[in-house]
């Protein structure tokens, strides 16, 4: 089946689910725009409004720039999906189902393997306060040690446990993930964490004695970026959607 054949909205789909699908597809396209992709690997998920039995995830055989609202799959918590001709990313299912079930307060989960993200996730001490951007995520950042998160059910449960009530997490030697009550908020934390990682790699590549933000100066940044003062990202989200519409509006199909 071609990508074009997949892009058909089911007649029985609610407007609420369709809107979530459009926003989730937008997150995939934003990953393309910002260079956060890893061929067809990594994944982003969303809770389906009014559906306690399934959530939305990408199929494993599409590049992120091919994903649209209608190509996203409904997946049960047990990993079942309707179209058996399409491949489910097993690792993605384990990570996202564990996170969404453990965190009823969030609706979107983003996971990427960016070069800067993997680099910082391999550094002792993880993310350091080297930029203003880092302050927005350091107040809600968890860390998870590297293990076989891709196939072990119990390990994915531990991953959700280590996340706690944070909205971002470094996965050591792996990458990172962020969550949000809205698509905009999941993107907000992903953007600021990725930018912070890029800056850290650049700074530590130039000097081993960088200027770090003091605790006193860091405190208000953490407060600004804390989830209790959100949902974050709502101001930028409409502009991001307009940008995607200018580039390629097929994500809405």
TrEMBL record:
One of its GO terms (molecular function) is actin filament binding. NCBIfam families: PRK07044.1. Belongs to the aldolase class II family. This is Class II aldolase/adducin N-terminal domain-containing protein. Residues 22-201 form the Class II aldolase/adducin N-terminal domain. Gene3D superfamilies: Class II aldolase/adducin N-terminal domain. InterPro entries: Aldolase-II_Adducin_sf, Aldolase_II/adducin_N, Aldolase_II/adducin_N_sf. It comes from Hwanghaeella grinnelliae. Pfam families: Aldolase_II. GO terms for cellular component: cytoskeleton.
């Amino acid at each position: 089946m071609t990508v074009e054949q997949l892009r058909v909205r089911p007649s029985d789909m609610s407007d609420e689910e369709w809107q979530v699908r459009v926003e989730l597809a937008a997150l995939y396209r934003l990953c393309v725009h910002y260079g956060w992709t890893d061929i067809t690997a990594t994944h982003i998920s969303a809770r389906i409004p009014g559906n306690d039995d399934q959530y939305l995830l990408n199929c494993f055989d599409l590049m992120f720039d091919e994903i649209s609202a209608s190509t996203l799959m409904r997946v049960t918590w047990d990993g079942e999906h309707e179209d058996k001709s399409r491949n489910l990313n097993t690792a993605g299912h384990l990570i996202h189902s564990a996170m969404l079930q453990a965190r009823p307060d969030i609706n979107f989960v983003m996971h990427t393997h960016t070069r800067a993200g993997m680099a910082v996730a391999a550094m002792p001490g993880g993310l350091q306060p080297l930029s203003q951007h880092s302050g927005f995520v350091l107040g809600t950042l968890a860390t998870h040690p590297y293990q076989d998160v891709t196939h072990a059910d119990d390990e994915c449960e531990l991953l959700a446990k280590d996340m706690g009530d944070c909205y971002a997490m470094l996965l050591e030697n792996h990458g990172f993930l962020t969550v949000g009550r809205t698509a905009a908020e999941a993107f907000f934390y992903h953007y600021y964490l990725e930018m912070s990682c890029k800056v850290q790699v650049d700074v530590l590549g130039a000097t081993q004695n960088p200027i770090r933000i003091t605790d006193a100066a860091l405190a208000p940044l953490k407060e600004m970026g804390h989830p209790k003062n959100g949902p974050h990202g709502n101001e930028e989200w409409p502009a991001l959607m307009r940008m995607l519409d200018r580039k390629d509006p097929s994500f809405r199909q």
